[in-house]
Hints:
This protein is an all-alpha fold. The chain has helices at residues 2-20, 31-36, 40-46, 63-69, 73-81, 96-102, 106-114, 129-136, 139-144, 147-150, 160-166, 170-178, 193-198, 204-215, 226-233, 247-254, 257-265, 280-286, 290-298, 323-332, 347-353, 358-366, 381-387, 391-399, 414-419.
Amino acid sequence: MIKNKIPAFAAIVLCTLSFGCRTTPQKESSVVELILSGKQDEAKNRFQTKYDINAVDKHGNTALHAAAQINDADLVTFLIIKGADTDLKNYDSDTALHVAIKHDSFDAAKVLAAVGGDLFARDGNGTTALDSGLQKDPSYYDIFITTKSGEIRDTDGESIVHYFVKTKNEQAVKYCIKKQLPLSVVDNAGKTPLDAAFEDTADETSVEIAADLIMGGAEHVDSAFSYFQDAVANRNLDYRFDDGQTPLHIAASQGHSGIAKYLLENNATTHVQDIAGATPLHEAVRYGHADIAKMLLDSGADVNAEDNLGKTPIMLIMPEAARKDMYSLLISYHADVTRKDTYGDTVLHSATMMNLPDDILGMLVSAGADVNARNKDGVTPLAIAMQQRNAAHVKFYAEHDADINSEDKNGTTPLSLALK
């Protein structure tokens, strides 16, 4: 009986040993793992069968993401030819192009950009591949700004030049000009990149970009900035129009501060007079643009320049909302408040004729304006206040020792006017 049990026991032991010696089957490496471990040829062999070329790993990366990461331009090309989708994003919202940029894979990025990798796709931070590259390394200007990318249009019909104008990337715009990309592409709204630049002329960079586009050959656009286009296109920032005005006159009158700054920084002349004798400073004051007036004064404009009527800027009628700031500005730059125009009127005569507030009269008198100044008819500011029955001004002049017995050419005095 014992002899019969031994073979049975041995059989059990042998069976157990047999199962124990078997090796556990190893999990097959994914294509992404193969590529990242340097086994590109083995990865390529997978795609000789019906393997899904856009299959993703646990991070959402495809074979194309992996090829971009290791900067294998040949593999990137191979995968794209095989049908890899360049627009797919991993779980970090990165396309293969984003991955290439983040890993400094310039060769891979160049291939992806050339075959239509979405330059405008945004990553998890909302940054486009285009901006990400340009911000990271200047090499991407040459990689991304190409004849091919110049043909790209987004859903609004905008070109890459539109994009750079709107993002205020002047260096990129200059690259577009250098690479001879089309500068006057019309989008779905009928706007060119130059139109886009003119939408924000208060911004200095936008004006610089507009000038770059014009000098680069962008087509003329109908806008309120035609004067600027004419001057820049003619390489003459002191270009004279039919009324004798220069671009600086027009920018000053229209309140185009960004353009005014561009003109001044590029040595436009501040003292040029139009056919009425007005300088750009006259125009800035007349239309109430104190910011531009200050730019002009800081650039050497003559605060006491006279127009054809002998009026200096401080003598002009200006918008009510701008008066206090403008008078204060001009006085701070030593405007002569005693000057007389061709009629002999001073700024105080004008101030009373315009019924300006007492505080402005006080500002002018404190700056040296003469309350007893006579015009060519011998009329003083007090006499004008009497004629207009302006009680507030009469009171002001009386408090500042104005002469009530000052006679005009007809022998009339402020006192006699008061007694009428």
